[in-house]
Amino acid sequence: MSQLLPPDEIRGMFSLAMSDMYRREVPQYGTLCELVGKVNAQVLRHDPALANRLRADGQLERLNVERHGAVRVATAQELATLRRLFAVMGMHAVGYYDLSIAGVPVHATAFRPVDVRALDVNPFRVFTSLLRLELIGDPELREEAAQIVSRRRIFTPACLDAIERAEQQGGLTRQEADTFVTQALETFRWHSDATVDLATYRKLRAAHPLVADIVCFKGPHINHLTPRTLDIDTAQAGMPEMGVEAKRTIEGPPPRVVPILLRQTSFLALEEPIRFVGAAGDQGTHTARFGEIEQRGCALTRKGRALYDALLSQALAQSKVGTSLDEAMRSAFVAFPDDEPSLHQAGLAFFTYEADVRRAEQAAPPPEASIDQLVGGGWLRAKAVTYEDFLPVSAAGIFRSNLGDDAQASYQDEGNREAFESALGARVLDEIDLYQQLSDASLRTALAALSSVRPVKVTA
């Protein structure tokens, strides 16, 4: 049998093909990529230390290929098959996101690589939402929507065959991978033909614009692709100069010296002509697809996330009594340390560790020392871990800004992780556990390297 390709290589093939397809379908996405490329080059030119650090860590190449996409599916079967499809590319479901708290009737996960080496090769991610039909208040409309989506088939037979073949033989040959990528793209392609008549579309849109987007089309068209920038504020300011209408605010934390978690912005969704069932010609428009930019910071520990959530709640409360949200965020987040040593000492962010063996040979560390002491003394080098995941409130904010003003404000409901995992057919991985495992493994390796030169006992 021919040699099987590594999943990382298939993921690279797919992400490149996806990017090419979306660039053809949404030309402004190409403009966005051009803008991000210019901003990143400018940042690296003006900050040689950052450029050297990214180069030493092998991150420059990753920066140029980094993308995340987003899709929305309607049924448990669609979600479970997407899980199998992404598994062919070495991507796993990480994190559970309840967007109903922000007025969006879906819950979601992110399919992504989980191994550090795989992330460095190609960190392509797909934020994948599942419609919660139970949140449609009208029982008749809810049943009608369920009937509509039960009839559609979003995967080609050849795509399903390729998935089964990969599962049976543990991967795909290059020829099989080419077929897989070509067929898988059909699931995410835009279709301007609706599967319903205009009246049904309007009823579903009245329930929620996202319901209409998910239910009324042949498949879960990719609704955005997102390149990664090193300076999202400059990118946001540059969008209008390139003829791109940006959303008003950047989602996520305020600007910082040391970025944390994730900041996102986008250009507003395209208004696209749609042909509805039973009518001749274009009978209306639909807004769904947009272009997004992201800036990734360091991953936060559970303690760090608790502080982040508390400060976010404080800022949102301030914004309801006359303070602008931007001003409230800047004011609240003064309480969040903004340098790596403070983040490390306070246990707010995740770090990986490397031993400086030469330093240990020249000057022995104390026989007993804390991790902070070993880092402060130069025997260990601590490097902040990049956040690879998403923020529910930010995702919902992006969704709402591109759905129109008639999007519902909130749902009186809670997340249902158990139901989501049942639909997925697997447990979702906990992203904070993954960061903790990464940090712990690097620390064990670094301490072993140190101890081989100078024995040291780590204290709390």
Q: Would you give an account of this structure?
A:
- By secondary structure, this protein is of the alpha+beta class.
- It folds into 3 domains: 7-297 and 388-428, Uncharacterised protein PF07063, DUF1338 (2,3-Dihydroxybiphenyl 1,2-Dioxygenase, domain 1); 300-339, no CATH class; 351-384 and 430-460, no CATH class.
- The protein contains 20 helices and 13 strands.
- It has helices spanning 7-25, 27-46, 48-56, 59-65, 76-87, 116-121, 139-150, 157-169, 174-188, 198-207, 209-215, 232-238, 302-319, 325-332, 340-345, 357-362, 371-376, 392-401, 417-424, 431-451; strands at residues 67-73, 92-98, 106-112, 125-131, 224-227, 262-267, 271-274, 284-287, 291-296, 351-355, 368-370, 380-384, 457-459.
- Helix 8 (157-169) packs across helix 9.
- The protein starts with 6 loop residues before the first helix and ends with a strand.
- Mean pLDDT is 89; it is low at 395-409.
What is the gist of this entry?
This protein has helices at 7-25, 27-46, 48-56, 59-65, 76-87, 116-121, 139-150, 157-169, 174-188, 198-207, 209-215, 232-238, 302-319, 325-332, 340-345, 357-362, 371-376, 392-401, 417-424, 431-451; strands spanning 67-73, 92-98, 106-112, 125-131, 224-227, 262-267, 271-274, 284-287, 291-296, 351-355, 368-370, 380-384, 457-459. The chain has 460 residues and is of the alpha+beta class. The chain has three domains: 7-297 and 388-428, Roll (2,3-Dihydroxybiphenyl 1,2-Dioxygenase, domain 1), CATH 3.10.180; 300-339, no CATH class; 351-384 and 430-460, no CATH class.
